[in-house]
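Troubleshooting: if your tokenizer reports a length mismatch, compare against these two reference records.
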Amino acid sequence: MAKGDKINFSTPSGFPEFLPSEKRLELYLLDIIRRVFESYGFTPIETPAVERLEVLQAKGNQGDNIIYGIEPILPPNRQAERDKSGETGSEARALKFDQTVPLAAYIARHLNELTFPFARYQTDVVFRGERAKDGRFRQFRQCDIDVVARRELSLLYDAQMPAIITEIFEAINIGDFLIRINNRKVLTGFFKSLGIAENQIKSCIGIVDTLEKIGESKVKQDLEKEGISAEQAQKIIEFIKIGGLVDEVLDKLKHLAQNLPETEQLSLGVTELETVIAGVRNLGVAENRFCIDLSIARGLDYYTGTVYETTLLGHEPLGSICSGGRYEELVGVFLGEKMPGVGISIGLTRLISRLLKAGILSTLAATPAQVMVVNMQEDLMPTYLKVSQYLRQAGINVITNFDKRPLGKQFQLADKQGIQFCIIIGSEEAAAQKSSLKDLKTGEQVEVLLENLAEEVKKRLI
């Protein structure tokens, strides 16, 4: 770069950065999510941001994910070294685009150190080279849980997922939401009963999964382009539109399984779905929080059983705010054995962006401080420091103002940061072991003995 050239220091497209009030909101939500995850026994792990490229592509490039490759940038005098040792094959590295494939590699690396079923959570940042747009990022934080077993995994783990989703979103208090549940075996079994070829079923499921985005008419057109007859396409549309209360939908599915040809897989899917729903109810999830939605397919190929999508009612254009499902072969890919798993994922960065824009969430105050000790006189700084430490030891977050400025300016500074209380101690107050406590929200100002200050602040913070 030539001397005097201007550096473009703007944020790279699709890579978010947060103001303090936004980052505090993210940390607040992470605390809620972590608390709920851990209440169900999930344990935290962390996998590298960078994995070998062959690991990330072990199950193909799932969905439309564009992987960011990693290459070292060496100074010119070391260029020959780079050319000589260029990373190819097993040495090529890339940024992880999700947490599931890295989880599979993690389990393979630590197989003999883990206890199964292995229940883990991660809240790492992942990277996708997709086109950046509103609510879509190239770097975002993803909050995942998965339970993985060797050979067999109880369907009650599937039932736990809606209970966990419910607890998280009720704690965040984002309004009414609906967890839509389906089973891929139900869809696959129904397609088989229509005589649709095995090699067409995956593409059909992918098309069904786009129903909300492209509409019924376009879904039928796309199915017919895949070689599905108009009659079959119409029956698929009618099937995925089956609705009603949960038990009504289950009854309709059982009736179909009894009266259609080749319904072994359909019957298995209905039985699994019924087991999961019973578990969801036994876990105390309210009936208005979940439903059976036969249009939910989850487009990724590795899902094999239960699938979930969560919708914020009244804000359906936001899309799914939490999704996931059961898979049978993904995690065992590196070990050559069956390792079934089930999990859900919250794209937290995307979710925060959408909820803030919709006015459903608000950012927090720019600082966690609840109190500012203002600077009235430089010679009283030892008193200010002692009072600040006394309050901190009582569990109160405090900013001590070290800069001497007019009192009104200090009040403005505190108010701008969302600090509610200011503590004022001048010469007279210090001599009498008193302070003035000013509430910037109400304008009220009271005199408090220093020995009672922490108790008074706590009382007013409630």
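Reference record two:
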Amino acid sequence: MPHSSQSRPQVQDGDALAAIDLGSNSFHMVLARYSLGELRVIDRLRETVRMADGLDDAGGLAPQSRARALDCLARFGQRLRGVERLHVRALATNTVRRLRDPQPFLAEAEATLGFPVEVVSGREEARLIYLGVAHAQPPKPGQQRLVIDIGGGSTEFIIGRGFDPIERESRQAGCIASTRRFFPGGKLTKKRWKEALAVIPAEFRQFAGHYRARGWDEALGSSGTHKSISEICVAMKLTKGAITAEALPQVRERLLQARSLDEIDLPGLSSDRRPIIAGGVLVLEAAFQALGLQKLLVSKAAMREGILYDMLGRGSGNDPRDVSVQALIQRYGIDQEQAARVRDTALQLFEQVAPAWGLDEDDARMLGWAASVHELGLAITHSQYHLHGAYILEHSDISGFSRQEQQVLAALVRTHRRGVPKSAFDALPDRLLQSARRKAALLRLAVLLHRSHESDELPPLQLEAGPASLRLVLPQAWVEDRALLRADLADEKKGMAGLGIEFEHALA
């Protein structure tokens, strides 16, 4: 892994960290201080935004939903004034994943919040949920857990041991989405409920058999839906806080006494949960049915706590992305010696130009990972292997990476050789474009210098950077013996032009 990941820890004693969860139902923010090796929560904010209510079938977002989201982020941004940029992580989930064109909303959200907003896949969301639950309620040694999180637009299912998730699934069945899908117009009937219970468990059974074979020692529910249903169970004197297979049907029957969502009268239910509780109870009953659950405890943690602990890992040399990149290297049989040569050279070049180009430790990490997997596509075919590698990196579920991070990784691998198409960086938000093109230039040079795949050490390299230029100085005696290198260096002027960089080389 790049040596930069072993640099000074990004998180130090006394630092404030903030995690923001842009959920489909609610936006949450947790502010914590890192002290004596522990996170201590100093503030929490939550607002009901209901973004999923404004999502249409074509992937558009209603103006009123967009306005509610941005108003909330403006208030969060005010609270975050003075917190260091690297110590704030804002992640968007299901509703933003489903937007036809998320970039306009993300650009507005970032400008309003004052910090980057990333999108995570359902499986990455599941990993972070499990991480938060595991830290809030540490499991017993060797114990396996099932964690279920019912959000507004999706539901995540995770089996894990210790602090590590073993299985992760995400399904399009959240409390808002299911309420809208099965109870259009807000009308509640037993017939509609029965029809829904024929559909949702079938979707869960695609993985339920495998999960049941894996097994678990205890099951926990995370998120506001589980908390609300737990409070209803307590208020109805059905349990002391757990959700059980005996209590859930009684909650459902009480709920269905209402003829519409507005008329729901469940003891212990808050008014802001009333419009979406039907979908939540429905999804949970389907999960109980598909997985054969008897009892579900309620966790006090969720994805936002997981984000905080993931930030600690990223800032302490235990970055989960390092593990994922190593797994890709193993899975696709990448030549590790060549990858190491290219990575080391890319990072040497990086150190020479980072101050002039405004590149930081995160850029170094991304460049190192891209160098480590730049030949991933060779597992498919040599022809156009950079295209195959980029496709895999963009469309796989890579643990620890947000969608934007995977898109940067894919763009670097896509552009490390041959011509650079104008569309190569289209998927990236504007804030990442310049640094991505600059990292791509460094990776191209490192690959070019190691094209022979030989283990010979390179001579001293001198790289100078201007705002849109690079000048590489090489020893003349070393270059004279390498005709292919001379030709590649001459051709690279055209390749770099595709990145918006004027390139020249000189001999010393």
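Descriptive notes for reference record two:
- Confidence is low (pLDDT under 50) at residues 1-9.
- The chain is about 45% helix and 15% strand.
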